[in-house]
Amino acid sequence: MKDLFGKAMFDFQTNNSPEDIITETSISEEDEMSIDYLFRSYDEMPKIEQKALQLTIGKTLDIGCGAGSHSLSLQNDRNLDVISIDISPKAIETCNLRGVKNAKVENILDFEGEKFDTILLLMNGTGIFGKLENCNIYLSKLKSLLNPEGQILLDSSDIIYMFDEDEDGGKWIPSSNNYYGELVFNISYKGEKEEPFNWLYLDFNTLQNAAIANGLKCELILEGDHYDYLAKLSIL
């Protein structure tokens, strides 16, 4: 990976002529994403993210922390002990420049040795699963990092709305054995193209079934304005 997302964050933080990121998926055309969105304050965050931060307690692991906005809010406004991880080295450099106290380059599947009261996966946290078939691997790993009364707070979206309706009012999904929430993302930044990567959007019922299969209770906490939701997972 060329770490273009990380480069964009780092350019924004260091005022190095940042540009919008161009995103394209297997079911959508090119779109522009302004990188300053990743640097928003608590007051600028969507209600789902605000609610997740309100519910966060105790020792916290922020997975896919990006530019560190969620971690900074918890660290500075709530005085919580937060470990922030991301697979992007430049994202972690950005976090360090912004004052995130404990940020490290790490893949969650490789994380060991500590347990948490809250684990956060925000901004479509299920995306890192990549494909539906990987849910068990990730949920099992997340469960192993929870304290007995701990919680996982994650958000995602049911992207069925992106597909056209057929004559009967149902949704027309291209014939494939794949789950409709499995997308391939392509991003480019300053003329460079990143390697394509898999990204998973999960509807709540599918998440709930996967959670139960892994010994986790799954509660719907909040629904957003656009098919998105916040869920809480805890050990059964």
Walkthrough of the structure:
The protein is of the alpha/beta class and 236 residues long. The protein has one domain: Vaccinia Virus protein VP39 (Rossmann fold, 3-Layer(aba) Sandwich). It has 6 helices and 12 strands. A hairpin with a 2-residue loop joins strand 1 and strand 2. Helix 1 runs parallel beside helix 4. It is globular. The protein starts with a helix and ends with a strand. Keywords: Methyltransferase, Transferase. This is Methyltransferase domain-containing protein. GO terms for molecular function: methyltransferase activity.
Give the secondary structure arrangement, pairings included.
Elements: H1 4-13, E1 21-25, E2 28-33, H2 47-55, E3 60-63, H3 69-77, E4 82-86, H4 89-98, E5 103-105, E6 116-121, H5 135-144, E7 146-157, E8 182-189, E9 192-193, E10 197-200, H6 204-213, E11 216-223, E12 228-235
Parallel strand pairs: 3-4, 3-6, 4-5, 6-7
Antiparallel strand pairs: 1-2, 1-8, 7-12, 8-9, 8-10, 11-12
